[in-house]
Amino acid sequence: MSALTRPPAGGPSSPEPAPAAAPPAEEAYLHEGSDTVRFVLHLPEGLVDASISRQALRHRFGAGEHPTDLVPTYHAHQAVIQAAVVHRLRQGAHAPVMLREADFPVPARGR
Description:
Elements: E1 29-31, E2 36-43, E3 46-53, H1 54-61, H2 70-76, H3 78-90, E4 97-99
Parallel strand pairs: 3-4
Antiparallel strand pairs: 1-2, 2-3
């Protein structure tokens, strides 16, 4: 297990399964205190906690102004967002990975 990840709930490092009241690891949620959508990636090395800023979701993925728009926008672009987390880990980032606007380059506009 790398220092970047945590073992899966109920895995060999955790003799007891996750509590029944805990939300599923795949469930993304809005964390208002940090103004981010938080989520967990399942990688071969284990689980990786990550989040994406409200600004990145609005400016790079077109989320609306209302906070309830953020989680659906995350789900609509989940593959790209999760790929950015993996990219940051390969660059040497440590979990939890926080994604910002700079992690999603703006495509060049045509002439």
